[in-house]
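Supplementary Methods, section 5.1.

A reviewer requested that the exact input to the structure prediction be made available. We therefore reproduce it here, unchanged from the version used in the analyses.
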Amino acid sequence: PGIHRPRTLLGERLNALVQSTLGDVDVIGMCFPADEPVGPGDRFISEQLENFPRAIKVAVITKVDVASKQQIAERLLQVNELRNWSSLIPISATAGEQLDVLTEELIALLPPGPAFYPTDATTDDDQFKRVSELIREAILEGVDDELPHSLAVTIDDIMQREDKDLIDVYANVFVERDSQKGIIIGKGGERLRDIGARSRVEIEALLGHPVFLSLRVKVAKDWQRDPKLLQRLGF
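The structure derived from this sequence is encoded token-by-token as follows.
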């Protein structure tokens, strides 16, 4: 969630991760949706950026494709009043508007230095992490706002079968309450089967082989507040 007011131990740990990351970067881009007024949360985050004086701050006004010209103008004025930004750039990721401008600006602000990753690297996440994220994305399609914060996916194993071109993936889906478990499984297991089918397509594209996917849904009560469960789930 980025910088936020934590309500759980998980939130505190994620905030600490964000703080640690921001302390190492050269440029910070803060996003503001053009179709929504600047609110207390935006002001809170902007104030927190004072803790990172070394980083250059860029304001990115997003969703300009769904906002009126008046809304965009109002948002630019509101955002400009928050702090002294290096630049304010309106964009639309969906429509591809001014993404080149944003890219060029961010690159221009970065100091020269050695390459940290090979030129063909697209992520530093391992295979288990990437597979778990694909499953999580499939689960979150079409659910309400509560479930994403109560959901964790872990991978027990990814194994190539010796007798055929098939990879077995054994995954666990953790939620905090029985009602959330019911949402994921669905009536007669229909939703869980749909989640498996959709995530399997993405996993096969990632791994380059046919996949057998085993999904088990488990309840870990209030795991976001339990230090032992957080550690078990990789947080």
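The longest strand covers residues 152-160. These observations are discussed further in the main text.
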